[in-house]
Write the structure tokens for this entry.
Amino acid sequence: MPENSRKLPGSRQATLRGVGVRSARDRLAVWTYVDHGEEIPCGDPSVTDAERAAAGRETVADRWRALLPGNRSRAAERYAAGGLPDGQDLVRVWRRRGPDALRARLGQDPLTTWSEGDVLHVLWRGRAEEVRLGGGVQPQLWPVEGAGDLWEASLRIRGLDEAVISIVALPEPPGGDQPGQASGMVVWRGPRAPGAAPAAERLSGTVDEHTLQGVGLGEPRRVSVYRPPVPTGPLPGCVLADGNRCAASPRPWRLRSSRAPSRPSCWWACTAPPTPSARGPTGAAMNTSPAMAAASARILTS
């Protein structure tokens, strides 16, 4: 069990990312945590692997490569065992597959998904230093053995047949410390999943821009407040992170309240992603800090 782990109540062993880490004393340190059965390395987000390597220190990429055989072995055991651990809705699994069979799954697309029972498979094709997924599931893809350009993840998910999961591939170019452009996006929709949400072709109403100040946010943060074209007065609200994606979307959702289904709701969102200096010690964005929640509430009620 990694040294930064903490035992939680119940029968499941877990580690809390950022608990007991040493980055405050050693910015170049690399540590690990466990997520969905996978041991994952991380470090101070303000330090690049190039800086660690220049100082003769272990890099996050070095630790990740060292952990990969063990992670694969444990994931293969979970695949063969079937089912999910108590209290978990998602776990990483793995089984060996040949590159030719996987390439046939892709066709001409760079990213694809398919399911086998309760396991969702994700496959991406391209050259990269590493590849992460964004959207509804966010593991780092593993390189396919025997293929120089295929990356995969297999996830056993509770209720997969009823799930709707958006997935985007985020490759890091070789030799780079910054993520590259998104490469491919798919939406997995299980056979028992609800239909697509109704969408508007064009955003109507008004969008106002505000700036939140506060020590708890780490830096000034921009917030967009959308108000639909309805009579003035209180409206139910919907809170969205990464709200910069919403105003630019050509097909915004028609958000409706369960208490007033005939009336659209408003939404507010933090639109500007935080810079590394405004992130927590593990790199997590400070989107949900009490300071931001309180300041945003004042904006919405003003």
